[in-house]
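Exercise: predict the fold of this chain.
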Amino acid sequence: MEKASPDGKVRMKGTIFILFEDFVAAELGDDGLDHVLAAAGLADVEPFVGPGTYPVAHLRAMLAAASERAGQPADEFQRAFGRYAFPLLARSAPTLLDGLTGPRQLVDQLDSIVDTEVRKLDPDAHPARFTVLAVAGDELLLEYESPHGLFPLVSGILDGIGDWYGAGIEHRLVSTQGTNGTYLITFPPVASPTGAAGHD
């Protein structure tokens, strides 16, 4: 959900910032959230709003402050946020998942889903891209292209996709080139489809 603004700073939609604030409050409490905003130098800025766009540097500063407050490695905290965020994002646009009966189908369509949803909010946005590079049996390679290299966040989203369908998937970042990365994803054998039952 990235966009270059006139000041040259790449920005992200406010929805992600709001979700991160909710995650921090859930993990660290309201006082913890206040501490994180102050440590990130954001205590006096206007509240984030979903349709707005904000510098990704703000999110990075919040991630660093929150992981330090939690006493967790930054990558671990970022991944946990991705896992937390996916079901909330999925519930916010349920029709986009219609007809997708398992994690593999969702990953296959991830790029078009992200692009569609982000451009609803901002037709000029340039969201991260997700490209399926190769498929072999129960495995595929997924390329993530973004100027920010938020690799743990993507890992957490993949965790969340597995959780959503109750079908854990295995995945790892196998290569990076600058801020782009490639994930090897292994899906469980296909069984009776469960869909996303229980997520209404």
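Check your answer against the key: DSSP finds six helices and seven strands in the chain.
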